[in-house]
Amino acid sequence: MTKQQEDKIIGDIITALGTYALGDIENSRKMNIMLATFILCSCFIDQMAQIGYYKKNNKIGENFKEFVRGYFGSRYDDELLYDSLRSRLVHNYSVNGKYWLSDESTYMNLEVVNNRIHLNIDDFINDIRTVWMKFKNDLENDNVIRARAIRHDKKFPVLRHSRIASI
Predict the structure, then answer these.
(1) What gap in Å lies between CA 29 and CA 33, rounded to an integer?
(2) pTM of this prediction?
(3) Would the pLDDT of 151 be above 70?
(4) Measured in Å, how far apart are the chain's first and last C-alpha atoms?
(5) Phi-psi region of 32 (alpha: psi -120 to 50; beta: other; left: phi over 0)
(6) Is the alpha carbon torsion for 111, 114, 115, 118 positive or negative?
(7) What is the per-residue pLDDT across 110-150, written as a single tens digit (0 to 9) for each?
(8) How many angstroms separate the CA atoms of 17 and 24, rounded?
(9) Would you kindly state where each structural domain of the chain is located, as residue ranges?
(10) What is the helix (H) or strand (E) element at residue 27, kind and residue range?
């Protein structure tokens, strides 16, 4: 594969993630659809994790947690994000009681209130934007991440904009 072909695939991945996925998060937030926005955030993190940490024998959960540790640092608990948001919220439309999902600014993001972690949607989106910018830079410049992303795209292609020719 030529460098130009690789750059095209990476460009498609960046468009899919930065325009479609992040754009849907921002649009759902503007419409004040809070739970849907949290679900989209979780899916976006999961998609970046699968693209950037794609390895043949890795379990999905391991990719997600490795991504959270690598890009969010210690600010977020990788196990808790995986269990509560990626697994329970996305698949069961619930959380395990550890998070308090809200759009209230009364409490600080990630502040523990009544034994639950306050997860503020606007702060969470801002953190995701920051992570996206770091990940985008790695897609463009880190040869290991680029190679994984291209391998992942061969097996699980990202959404690409295309037009159906009129008949």
Answers:
(1) 6
(2) 0.91
(3) yes
(4) 33
(5) left
(6) negative
(7) 999 889 999 999 999 999 999 999 999 999 999 999 999 99
(8) 10
(9) 3-155
(10) helix 22-30
